[in-house]
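Hi C.,

You asked whether I'd gotten around to modeling the 56-residue construct. I have! Everything is below, sequence then structure, no commentary in between.
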Amino acid sequence: MSITSERERVVAPPIQSCDDDNTPNTTVFRSVPQHWTLTPQQWAFIDAFADEVSQK
């Protein structure tokens, strides 16, 4: 359980900053996780979220 919550915390900050700005930061957001080790599920979540933000 703790491992999942830690990963969620890692994913959360960029999401909040993208939400606050509401600017074309989705490209930056997509490039940041390259430094992270994410599972395919987390990548899918990030892609889905970035798509959602860019559609707003």
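If it helps when you're writing up: The mean pLDDT is 63.

Thanks,
B.
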